[in-house]
Design brief:
The structure is a homotetramer of 427-residue chains. Chain A has 427 residues and is α/β, with parallel strands linked by helices. Chain A has 2 domains: 12-64 and 325-426, Aspartate Aminotransferase, domain 1, CATH 3.90.1150; 67-320, Aspartate Aminotransferase, domain 2, CATH 3.40.640. Chain A contains 15 helices and 18 strands. In chain A, a hairpin with a 5-residue loop joins β9 and β10 (221-222). In chain A, α5 packs antiparallel against α12, α6 (90-104) runs parallel beside α12 and α13 packs parallel to α15 (406-425). β4 (88-89) of chain C pairs parallel with β1 of chain D, so a sheet runs across the interface. Chains A, B, C, D: Keywords: Aminotransferase, Pyridoxal phosphate, Transferase. Chains A, B, C, D: InterPro entries: Aminotrans_3 (IPR005814), Aminotrans_3_PPA_site (IPR049704), Dat (IPR004637), Ectoine_EctB (IPR012773), PyrdxlP-dep_Trfase (IPR015424), PyrdxlP-dep_Trfase_major (IPR015421), PyrdxlP-dep_Trfase_small (IPR015422). Chains A, B, C, D: Pathway: Amine and polyamine biosynthesis; ectoine biosynthesis; L-ectoine from L-aspartate 4-semialdehyde: step 1/3.
Chain lengths: 427, 427, 427, 427
């Protein structure tokens, strides 16, 4: 455990004086990080932290994967081209070929690959634009507690009131519908379909429905396969495009490369980013059903669509997906972790804890106001990095690197349990 | 010169079959790039190209600057933390300190630094959001031929009709006014001020005015210092925020670090990206007048705000700005290049060429439809990378790396001259 | 019954050649009307019609009420001022005084009276504007199948897809929620409240909720008193303004002057028009909770706010409300009519008819596609004017004048029954 | 002149306590009007006023025209149908026939007639809807200082900032361009055309341009015939619909029935209301180029589209247009009045008065803040009703009834002159 005296030695003054007030995680984790490897981080004072956060899902393969690292160093050493806009490069060529071989073909998926700019919000904005352009319709349906990004288009399909206010203008052309299990009294898809078939519903026929199969920022809410299939059927019936935002839930986080694989659905557009590069460098793609690829050349562009370090690392990351082993490992670890969490909350029935999630995208929802936040603060004091999610920060979220070993997982879970106990004592 | 037979050997099939139709530059430069150094690129067949494009302004310091490269390799080798969201890291700390010392303090500028996500459109969206939030107003005034990005908010202040149509929905909350010298019959700022002071103008008092001091994508249109000063005065008089989008014109491109320095204006918000990282990796900051930094923690966020490779390279890039030498060199090269361009078009008065630009952000506008595009195609055949800009692609644009040497500049200009002559012959 | 040969003698050519294609009722009732009195109309050929339509609810007191008529003739004869903008006139003074004495005071209602222009859409637009202005919020919640008017603001809170498309632009700043009994699987107010209390719902806190207590155009859908009370409580809890659009359901149509009286609610804003003038001349008022009357002078205006013929007739119409007798009569006739309708559909169980409504705002919903329309066409052939409503025109709507006598009601109902029987035969 | 003691006897308390704060003209003219005939009004105390306001242009034929009055009384006495939605009636038939014979045919105009609801804002909204629907475009271009109405669509094309704020939401889908002579430094149509032909202007190709040929509320600004012709040419060149809002300037106010006749243009859509009924009762039509009449039946509707008293009076009003005499009379009176106004301001060069207008739509703009308002207040004290217009109320507006006789005009002008002199003295 880090003592208070050590903490105070960390000098955060440059951040406090020069960086914008918008900074947030550095407030929850008030230290200066320096090194990282696998599932561990170290700050400038040499304190070690176990990572149950994984860069909000951007580090599924852990920090500084040695194979990727070597590839990047070799490439840099050989003066490989680093920035190339959307020109053809060997690094991009390899990524495209490997992505097709390792990801698309084995899953019988036929998509065109768009590089929309290197972040999650870039891919979401590109998908929304294309869906509206192709259908000639304006409205996009999103779901309660959705999180899709911070630029104007993505923010319009994001549920969080606090984030929405940041727009400074009314957010338009969207309709928010209840997510799976949002409310016991509402059968969300019955209502949606009712709206669509009723010429008097006031809901204009949408261009697209956009969803996360597991809502990360929204509080680790899991949509059932049945619900996802019904959404897909509604889309087919009404000729609505289905966009799966797999930015956080994709790249193996829930146990399969795409989070929608278990549901057996086939989205029209898929958004990938975060862990796609495998190394934590900015990267995103939009996957497009071929007949929908109606972009004119250059109709959407961006300076950092050709980030070759990302192409390289992402290509290396695909090695994890050549066989089923990695997916099975994630699922095994997921079950194990889930079971540990169930045990933990079983010991504290008064906390009304609820375990949520799928694969290694997990969380405990606590009913006590501010409880989850305190648990995470206690965990940090003990060397574990975890964050909250949900509209009121009511969920302690676990996103350990998928490559975490037995020891790391156990150690992290032990700290979490201790943190819950300590937080409860302090009530 | 690359022969046609060589060209056909390049296999672009994977890009054609798998990458979205939205790809564009790879159509103008149909080869596969592999390596790059300084102002040169090489494709897989070993053909060498001189770079007069610089990644659309993202490579002002050339490709693979050796000092930055060494820093990155060392950092990677030592398992420095690569991805850190908005947590404090040593790499970020150094960037903040150096940026303050080398850039802000010597220019007497007092700004808070926001990391809004790593691309140009992220910084523009963050500036628009903050301006609207702080003022409580909706409208933002932009200018004809402006280019600010492809996500919904940035696209709303972008002039290009083709790009705007990509949104699929009407773009709102913005007013487009004539840029400096847009039309000989319109005194653009007189009209703007008339609108503002007239309670019956139908133009709502705006939150902000956003502008580029030199419009890159819009056709290398240069705003005079006098015009910029007047815009600033209008902003002050009406309590409107002034946002300078220095994504393309900044980082030395026009001869000073910020493009607005010669005009002596002091924007309330500044958007930087493209060459900010120095190495072509995604990076952006939004500079905020301290009293406007009214963000709540986390009100705007994003996964790739903490891209430490970018912090490192960006910190190294600041070495160019420790003295005035680099700026003077850019200005000297700019004058020299401009003079060469003037000579070139002087030899072909029938082409009605017009040299435009400032510093090393230059272009020749040709009146003949498609002429500039053909010149760039000829240049590529001769080993020079150049692109067009302007609403009809009527401008052959020159953005050589600022670090280009005498030989490279001369060689590139010679190819350009030859390309113009050849294109004219083929008319 | 009118024979076909007679019908063909009616010359509608001037309407067909000169009037816009937008005309509609003249297609359902293809004759030229000339005179009207009480519950009867006559066309140019002297054919008599019983009116079960009452000008879509604008003629609750029947055609050409003799007292109002005399007042108007006397006023005109005496050169009373007819058009006065929003200047003070004796006619307006009398209306204000009487409206206060006869309507507001006995019901313990304290409202400021706004004259927003003489039509339903004028009053709705004024209420929406004021609600947004006073609260500083943008969103207004309306309900499925709502009908509030055809101008842009009112159309945005109208559910009908066909009407909405007429706008030619996306309709914004509104959220459509399920009306009472919209769907058996959805507890509409539970969902609404869930949305409001959830900071992640994606539904921005609204300025107002607008509703009709009985939806006329939407298909004679009746909200229960319990539901209305709950809506009011939600409004109070969240500081949302409650707007009751009583344009069609008000002025006694449902059995009390205001349709919301039985529910015991107290809307913040009330919209009245249609039968308010009593004589079928254009007139509307917006009733405003006094502390919300934050208009600046002239902030909303309009040429026909001072239609003195309407003030006069409306003042006379208030005589019906001096005692409870008229309300009791409406309720008695309503019950009687409802019972007749129940009997009618009881005879044809295969038609799946459903009686709907409250007071003398009644309808029969038929499940057969186009059945209700055919019934109304048969009724017209037999001398009864009735129209359909509902998103698919599935409801045969009964809006007889409230002053209709026993004979008229019986005669109309007999024709309706005959029309149902005939329509069924022709299936 | 009314003495102060008399004034105080007028009891306005019911208006002050019960009517909304939005009331405005009753504040400028604080008395209770009772009777009116021709160009005269009388209040309850018998004070006589000369009307130079004509109900903001709704009483071009004066108050209580005896022929119209008799027609209305006879119709009412005979129980003619008063309210008929959009059903065919004899009154409507006569109006359509006569409008075609007297107005459309002699002017070689071929329009379909739409009854969009009885007010100016109804006709404007219908024209905007149809233009957007037919073209499939969103943007409508309006002009600085335009006034088109108070409902959301009309307000979006209205220039006045104070009125716009009343919307409570941002007004969208419109672009405001400089009106003719808006600013000496701006050639407004050159700029407009520049915007349209420039693919980078940021102005989306509009559905329509809407304009008033003389802006009434905007300050009696007159567009030249040359300018109107150029606007029409621009519309033809770019396939943009031209909407002339002739609500205030039409029906003879400027010297011809349609205000656009002298310019020789042929709008695609024309909005008429105000004086159309001739008697001050609510009435409006939208004239539609036949091939644009693409409404589906009922796609736009409204309760008071069939206001038969308006049809009757409007038909009678057409008698004024059977020969050229009335138009010539208006023009003669207009010239005479203008000349008187020129003389008046000639006597007070220090007031910087500027005479504006066309026909009998005239005004004097005064540069002194609040001067025009004081002049009108003085005039009222002397028995003359006049109002101000312009964004700062800087114009004393003259809209005498077109039927005013020599004596009335002279008397009114004498009071105006006296009022100017008195106001100046009090400075």
């Amino acid at each position: 455990m880090i003592t208070t005296s050590e903490m105070t030695e960390t000098d955060l003054s440059i951040f406090e004086s020069l960086e914008s007030e918008v900074r947030s995680y550095c407030r929850s984790f008030p230290t200066v990080f320096e090194k990282a490897k696998g599932y561990k981080l170290w700050d400038t004072q040499g304190t070690e932290y176990i990572d149950f956060f994984s860069g909000a899902g951007a580090l599924n393969y852990g920090h500084n994967d040695p194979v990727m690292k070597k590839t990047l160093i070799d490439y840099l050493s050989g003066d490989g081209i680093v920035h190339s806009l959307d020109m053809a490069t060997t690094a991009k060529e390899q990524f495209l070929k490997r992505f097709k071989e390792v990801i698309l073909e084995p899953r019988n998926l036929d998509y065109k690959v768009m590089f929309p700019g290197p972040t999650g919000t870039n891919t979401v904005e590109s998908a929304l634009k294309l869906a509206r352009k192709v259908t000639g319709r304006n409205t996009v349906i999103s779901f309660t507690r959705a999180f899709h990004g911070m630029t104007l288009g993505s923010l319009s399909v994001t549920g969080n009131a606090f984030k929405r206010k940041g727009a400074g203008i009314p957010l338009s052309h969207t309709v928010s519908m209840p997510y799976d299990n949002y409310d016991d009294n509402v059968d969300s898809l019955t209502l949606l379909e009712r709206y669509l078939e009723d010429e008097g519903s006031g809901i204009d026929l949408p261009a697209a429905i956009i969803l996360e199969t597991v809502q990360g920022e929204g509080g680790i809410n899991v949509a059932s396969s049945e619900w996802l299939k019904q959404v897909e059927q509604i889309c087919r019936r009404w000729d609505i495009l289905l966009i799966v935002d797999d930015v956080q839930a994709g790249c193996g986080r829930t146990g399969t490369f795409f989070s929608f694989e278990p549901a057996g659905i086939r989205p029209d557009l898929v958004c990938l980013s975060k862990s796609l590069s495998g190394f934590g460098v900015p990267f995103a793609v939009t996957l497009i059903r071929p007949d929908l690829d109606q972009w004119a050349p250059g109709e959407h562009n961006g300076t950092f669509r050709g980030h070759n370090l990302a192409f390289l690392a992402a290509t290396e990351a695909l090695r994890f997906w050549e066989t089923d082993t990695f997916a099975q490992e994630i699922q095994r670890k997921g079950k194990k972790t889930r079971s540990s969490l169930e045990q933990m909350i079983g010991k504290h029935p008064d906390l009304n804890g609820e375990v949520r999630g799928r694969g290694l995208m997990l969380g405990i929802a606590f009913s006590g106001k501010g409880f989850a936040e305190k648990v995470c603060a206690e965990a940090f004091q003990r060397g574990l990095i975890m964050e909250t999610s949900g509209p009121d920060g009511e969920v302690a979220k676990l996103l350990p690197p998928l490559i975490i070993d037995h020891e790391g997982l156990e150690k992290g879970l032990a700290i979490l349990e201790e943190s819950i106990t300590e937080t409860k004592k302090a009530l």
